[in-house]
Amino acid sequence: MAPLQTHIHQASERGLSSVTTLITGPSHCALVDPPFLIPDADSVVSWIRSITPNPLVAVFITHHHPDHYFSANPILDAFPAAKLYAAPYVCTAIDREYDEKVQYWPAKLGEDLVPTRPRKPEPYPFSFFNLDGGVVVLLGPVQGDSIDNTLFWLPAERTVIVGDVIYARSTHVWAEEIETPAIWAGWMSTLDTIEALNPETIVPGHLEEGWKMDARADLAHTRKYLELFREKIANAPKKMSVDEVFKTFKDAFPQADKNLDFFLGHLANQFGEGGEVWEANRHHRVGLKERKELQGYILPLPEA
């Protein structure tokens, strides 16, 4: 049996450099995480056709953030036989915020960049799929930069597609939704789980142009980012100003020099003194999530 192969497409800087992954088998292919913007989705269509003549049968979404599914429409139009899927908990998260997000993003960026009615996924009821004899396992829900993420694990190939659980070292981490110590601990547990899989390849959620994936380095980058968050924000004796938060993380990760206003601007306003909180991103009752929801897959669940 021929192994499955994975190929990655990096979105534009304006599309936040999100990563779309194509999984190819001998006869069919599947896609994980359509991009945010329509031009990037058009690019994905051409890219798929350049890689394989085999039909696209499914498109999966790792989590509910718009930069990982909003522009599925052009891809589905180009490959009408493909189904759009997400784990049931991801579908639920998309539903919680869909109406507000589809008002916010087209108005902010323009309808030439963002679809006014992004396609919604249908719930995928299984914990794995078999593509031309190759197995891909869906692991979740797990905590990443948001609640309720799915990891896509290719055990034979030792490849894991992690969405926004891990960011490449080229990019600042979206840490704006770490509202409680339980969320932080849940995210760290997901990183531990990925490390325990001993993958040879980790496909991160964001990777800037000109950079290559590096499983160990990207995992370490995300851990370092979360540790700095705990030190400077969660456990800080005094709350920093908006400017201080921005500068602290900018200086700590100088190689990550793209989309600072988005990643660091939101982080600094969420946690800096006097910042303006992005209320359009408050739909998931993150602060009420308990450890048993976030880390209940750990047996036995250790004491906090």
Notable traits:
alpha/beta; five-stranded mixed beta sheet; globular; 304 residues; Metallo-beta-lactamase, Chain A; 8 helices; Metallo-beta-lactamase domain protein
In round numbers, the mean pLDDT is: 96
**What is the CATH third-level topology name?**
Metallo-beta-lactamase, Chain A
- Given this structure, which CATH class is correct? Alpha Beta
| Range of helix content | 25-40%
Count of discrete domains = 1
What percent strand? 15-25%
What is the tally of helical segments? 8
Strand segment tally: 11
Largest sheet: 6 strands, mixed
Low-pLDDT windows of residues? none
Class from helix and strand fractions: alpha/beta
Quaternary: single chain
- Biggest sheet strand order reads 1-2-3-4-5-6
> Radius of gyration, rounded?
18 Å
Q: What series of H and E elements makes up the topology?
A: EEEHEHEHEEEEEHEHHHH
What form results from the Cα inertia axes? globular
For CATH, the homologous superfamily is named as: Ribonuclease Z/Hydroxyacylglutathione hydrolase-like
Distance between the termini: 45 Å
CATH architecture: 4-Layer Sandwich
Protein name: Metallo-beta-lactamase domain protein
Domain Metallo-beta-lactamase: 17-206
Organism: Phyllosticta citribraziliensis
Pfam families: Lactamase_B
Short description:
Helix content is 35%, strand content 18%. The protein has 304 residues and is of the alpha/beta class. Helix 4 packs antiparallel against helix 5.
